[in-house]
Amino acid sequence: MAEVLDIGVCPEVSLAELLRSDEPVVRAVLERGGQVDPVRPMLWPCPSNDIVSAHEWSGSAPDVELFAVRDARVGGGGAHAEKDGALVFAEGVYPSYVRHYIETGLNAEHWRIEAEPVRHVDTAFVINHFNLIYGHWLTEILPKLFTIRRLAKLGVRAPILFGLNTPAYMLNIAAALLPQHEQLVFDPQRERVAVSRLLLPSMLQRNYWFHPILSAELDALAARQPKQRRPERALFVSRTGMPESYRRLGNVAAVERTARKLGLAIIQPEQMPWFDQVRTFADARLIAGEFGSGMHNAIFSPAGAKVVALNWIVEVQSRIANHRRQDVGYILPTDGRPRRHSPDGEDAEPVFEIDPDEFAGRMEPLLAELARSRRGLRERLLGW
Predict the structure, then answer these.
(1) Which residues partner with 308 through β-bridges?
(2) Rounded distance, CA 298 to CA 135, Å?
(3) Which residues, 6+ apart, have CB-to-CB distance to 347 below 8 Å?
């Protein structure tokens, strides 16, 4: 366990004042929040009231903010910020589970700061936290790059601090999106970085209720990627190449055979260059697959896309769908029990099955609708 310093309630100043303030912590509001994404009906009724409640729970987008912390230390596996011996936290900068993990001592090896400072930096951004799983990076860290890019247009530029354990693809994406920002990579096992003015950008969401800026940035990112010659409109996202997890689809071969028969293109996103993933999902109109990080790539897909998740873990896929104006449906394991993650290790039986016939029955009308819409588009283009 560790002490948490909640900086969420601190003086609000202008951006210019923030960059010269000597106050311990200040924040500037870059864009007001308060927007609410309308809740869209599920593709079909879900038998779990908990899942329905999570899908329908509506909340508002937070303000887009930038925090500045004077005389901070950065270290640990997630490049966490520390001030006066306490780990820094603010809603909108970090997801709420980060605070829970720190205060309860869960997975302390990933966030604990132990090394002494051996480097000093005047001003730097920190965007990471200890959870570098792709789906969390996609929804909790990537949006901060968009915030930093908007700040750069206002003349605010500074290096970005990353721990040595940051996956290479994340560093490459940050470099591609922010080519004018230096990356300072440190070894959290050997050093902690002293920062005179630490900049913490917000992640454009709170509890996965997203700010409209995120959609604008995602659409612009997708539009900049080269068009595919023969884009796949119906995808099945496979997890067969992923490391073993706390849950496992026991009859994955049967489900994927069914997907192939239905005409879905089976992809493994982690095997694709990231910007190809962006383009592939931006072109998709129907996406199916086991609930997980790969399915969260639907955040790049357009309004009206249909998303079919096998299993259910948390509300994130629903919140993505509501924000992006997509339609989502869940197919639960054959025993009716979602396989969820429990930090204390008390998980349900990890192996589950999805009924291939139920999967086919849910997909067939969606595929027929997709075919009709494509025929209609072709006829309009040909002037019929």
Answers:
(1) 288, 329
(2) 11
(3) 246, 247, 339, 340, 341
Q: At 219, give phi and psi (nearest 5°).
A: -65, -40
**Number of Cβ within a 10 Å radius of residue 187:** 13
Report the C-alpha gap between 250 and 272 in whole angstroms. 25
Helices 274-283, 212-223: inter-axial angle, 10-degree rounding = 100
Q: Is 234 exposed, middle or buried (0-12, 13-18, 19+ CB in 10 A)?
A: buried
Residues 158-198 have pLDDT tens digits of 999 999 999 999 999 999 999 999 999 999 989 999 999 99
* Tokens coding 191: 């050093």
Which two three-digit tokens encode residue 179? 């080519």
Q: Single out the residue of 345, 317, 350, 346 nearest to residue 335, CA to CA.
A: 350
Enter the tokens of residue 101. Answer: 């993990």
Q: For residue 382, name the pLDDT band (cuts at 50, 70, 90).
A: low
Phi–psi pair at 26, nearest 5 degrees: -140, 165
Distance from C-alpha of 150 to C-alpha of 19, rounded to nearest angstrom:
15
How many other C-beta atoms are found inside a 10 Å radius of the C-beta of residue 380? Answer: 9
What size, in residues, is the chain? 384
306-56-311-243 Cα dihedral, nearest 10 degrees: 90
335: amino acid identity, one letter? D
Residue 152 one-letter amino acid:
A
Which tokens sit at 60?
């508002």
**Pairing verdict, β 192-201 and 117-126:** parallel
The one-character DSSP state at 139 is: I
What the block records as the tokens of 273 is 């260059």
pLDDT tens-digit series, residues 108-167 = 888 888 888 789 999 999 999 999 999 999 999 999 999 999 999 999 999 999 999 999
Mean pLDDT of all residues belonging to the chain? 94
User: Three-state SS for 113?
Assistant: coil
- Side-chain half-sphere CA neighbours of 249 within 13 A: 26
